[in-house]
Write a structure and sequence with these properties.
Elements lengths: L2 E6 L4 H10 L4 E7 L2 H5 L6 E4 L5 H8 L4 E4 L4 H4 L1 H10 L2 E4 L4 H18 L2 E3 L4 H13 L5 E12 L5 H9 L6 E4 L2 E4 L6 E3 L8 E6 L4 H8 L1 E12 L17 H10 L7 H6 L1 E10 L4 E9 L1 H17 L7 E3 L1 H5 L2 H7 L5 E3 L1
Helix pairs in contact: 1-12, 3-5, 5-6
Length: about 350
């Protein structure tokens, strides 16, 4: 009997791409969503399950039928807690596409003991953000070396975020976000920290503004580093157009949500999605002066996320992933082998 992979958020933009990629494998895909009409419009080969994540008994009922749970419902700070908790209680293997630091911290702090007890495997951020950065760090960093700084730097061309990504970014300032500074995780709002940078191969991008991707927590967990951050890259002068911002209180969040609901939103078209490009660098500074870096170039970040998820599922089904508890993507899936599957050899530059 094929393994059953339950995909929450299957009718969403990224969830639909993930289901499409999973279809190529010998698995039974169960597409779960709250809109029955949208579910019925999906590929007839999928199993279908109508579920509202605000109905915990129904969520737990579906998870009991699954071998692997894939969660593509965001923002995770709002909607993720019930599903990951139910998966950890059940002892199943759980993957998500979360790009939100506070939810990742919740998983490490609250879900890990539960997953250890049930022997569940929980892997967050099996997506463009932040699996790729986590794998790249494994390329240039060693567990027995002391680092002054390990940070990731992103640059995008033709970026057209999905509706879910837009909402997640708007809500980022309503939840704690973290920068590792002098050995401590410090609450730092998006774009509240700027730095000048010099990255080999990206000479025109000299300024960086902090944006809180999960790999900050991954680097802090996996390596002996005093500082760690994740940043957007800007050309000379662009940084001056990005204002320093402060965090916003949870009480303001309802107003943000209401304004977002009142504004008509669109997902990128296939052409827009396929035209998106990125450059991602991970730079490590060894304590004492040595500097290491790796840069990867690619495109179509949403489809890349779907391919990443399909590869992670395949590794689980092949029995090539062991252990339990909450793990970072690199801890669960390793590094170079997965990178070689996801990227052409000439798209990765190591220095």
């Amino acid at each position: 009997m094929p393994s059953r992979v339950l995909v929450f958020g299957a009718t969403g933009f990224t969830g639909g791409l993930i289901c499409r990629e999973l279809k190529a494998q010998p698995i039974d895909v169960i597409a779960a969503g709250r809109d029955e009409k949208k579910l019925n419009g999906l590929d007839p080969d999928y199993g279908k399950a109508v579920v509202d994540i605000a109905d915990p008994p129904r969520v737990r009922q579906l998870i009991r039928r699954a071998d692997i749970v894939v969660n593509a419902i965001g923002p995770f700070n709002l909607h993720g807690h019930g599903i990951v908790t139910a998966a950890a209680e059940r002892g199943v293997r759980y993957l998500d596409i979360c790009g939100e630091q506070q939810f990742i911290k919740f998983a490490f702090d609250q879900i890990n003991p539960l997953a250890q007890k049930s022997r569940s495997l929980i892997v967050n951020s099996c997506s463009f953000e932040s699996l790729v950065a986590d794998l790249l760090a494994s390329e240039i960093c060693a567990n027995d070396t002391e680092y002054e700084d390990i940070s990731s730097f992103y640059h995008f061309l033709n970026s057209q975020p999905s509706i879910g990504t837009k909402l997640t970014m708007k809500l980022a300032r309503h939840f704690p976000t973290y920068l590792l500074s002098d050995g401590d995780l410090k609450v730092t709002p998006p774009m509240a920290h700027h730095r000048d940078v010099r990255i080999a191969g990206l000479p025109e991008l000299t300024h960086a503004g902090f944006f809180p991707f999960p790999e900050v927590l991954f680097f802090a967990r996996r390596f002996r580093t005093r500082n760690a951050g994740s940043y957007y890259l800007f050309e000379e002068g662009q940084m001056e157009q990005v204002p320093l911002v402060a965090g916003r209180s949870p009480q303001d969040m309802e107003r943000t949500l209401e304004r977002f609901r009142r504004t008509r939103q669109f997902n990128p078209t296939d052409a827009e999605r396929e035209s998106q490009q990125f450059r991602l660098a991970v730079v490590a500074k060894v304590r004492g002066g040595e500097r290491r870096q790796v840069v990867v170039r690619g495109k179509d970040m949403y489809n890349l996320t779907a391919k990443i998820m399909a590869q992670c599922v395949a590794l689980l089904l092949e029995g090539r992933v062991g252990g339990h508890g909450v793990k970072t993507p690199a801890e669960a899936f390793g590094g170079k082998a997965l990178l070689d599957v996801l990227f052409p050899r000439d798209s990765i530059q190591r220095a």
